[in-house]
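User: Hello, can you help with two protein structures?

Assistant: Certainly.
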Amino acid sequence: MSDFPKFVEFHEEGVREGFQIEPVIHPIERRIKLIDSLSETGLTQIQVGSFVSPKAVPTMADTAQLFEGIKRKEGVDYTALWLNKKGVMLANEAKDVAMDARILFYTTDAFSMANNNCTATEMRDHQVEFLDMYLQQGLVPSGAYIMTAFGCNFGGPVLLEAVTDLVKWTVDLCADRKTPLPAIYLADTVGWANPEGLKQQIGAVRELVPDARIGLHLHDTRGLGAANVYAALEMGVDLFDASVAGLGGCPFAGHGSATSAGNICTEDMVFLCHEMGIETGIDLNALIESARLAEDIIGRPLNGRIMHAGSLDKYRSN
């Protein structure tokens, strides 16, 4: 029996996810224009960039300048990603960053070493320090991200137990700190998820923590993005990260190319929801224009479908 939500919340990550993997650094003025365009679509959260090593990810070296240049719209949170304490410090120093207080986990040592230069257990234990730092700053944790939740290009399939153990650990940590449990995000970092496996994981998390909000960070690497979103909607999931025009991909995933399909495409998934009668608060036609702008900036055809075909509005009005 399906349990479709009435409203779905999308967090936009295309600017960070998409441009981080590009082989060139696109002009900052054009990226600012894209962010400003996305601000007019009804999105409530836009990830602007990341405060990470400029040596490892040179395309994100000017994130502070992006925050200086964008036009902020009331009701929109402009967030950033960081992976260590230095990143948090840089975010605090930048102009008006909405501090998205995430804690991050990996299910495999191989991916954790590639992305963070530490084992998965070490990364998990570091999150205690992050949580305490957030609480000292008066921040409420927004999400607990379990990366490579469905599989890892370097470590192979991921057991369900590896995911549920991290969920239990997070529940205990938050209970010990007497802080609310953040949304539990299952992240398909490198494109291993399939609809049945995804439903199994959602069900297992719900069995452990019935009241937890579940979010999904899905990639369309192997063409199952929309199928996975539909499966999640059937389970009542109402929180998704997505990327305009289907931009994105992890630079350390091992796929080797910025042209590999990236994250689930924001406008395509908004279209899916709207066609099913699920509200999003997003102006689809405005989002399509943002997607076309993203494609123009990147300079090659991108993976979004609706940006090329258009919505059905003009046909329904005939």
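That covers the first. Now for the second protein you mentioned:
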Amino acid sequence: MIQLFLCPSPELYGLYHRDGAAVLITDIFRASTTMITAMAHGAEAILPVATTEEAQKRGRELGCLIAAERNVRRCDFADLGNDPKEYTPERVGGRRIVLTTTNGTRSLRIAREAGAGYVLIGSMLNVSATLDLLERRGIGEVVVVAAGWQGHVSSEDCLYAGALGYELELSGRGKAMGDAARMMTDLWAAHCLTLEERIDYIRSCEHYERLCSAGHEGAVPYCMQLDSHPIVVGLEPNGDEWLRILD
């Protein structure tokens, strides 16, 4: 039986850390969606880094594609930004990518520094595949870390926990635990079961408005669709720092 917890901001992760739990980093708009897309389209591996300086340095040293975004926009020095549509099979197939984003890669660093071992990347694109892997590996506790925006809570990231909680309980494989995960599971069931409902709900949220103002409204339906890519991407507990597809 999988127990699901939601940490609504990476700044709070120290309060939610659970020894032995899997940690799901989610940044629906758009880092985790972009990472899943890149790997589904044939990228070899992704190295998440916290700063733009590290992205430039490591990318050049390793001969990788450099992907960098700050405040919804691609950095001038980067080969790629943080828009999933950039990560085509032709562009990323067989390549390694060094990636830094405003919120997603920062959240991963915070969780790792606080002791998270088994880290997965969570997106709407692979909810079912993620639950299948957790069950296969006998993971009993899962903490979703919602990346948010510069420390503030974002609805779309918390809703990801609702999607997981709903599917866990519907299938009898687990339960949403604690008030945060319970609220998001109930919200998902009431307002977000269809893509149309999810998009309608998210239109009133801050990060949706931020994407629209930067000209990225078209990314929203893609980011909010369920189970289009049946892969799981993450870091093995005793592995290196590269994100890869996990079996």
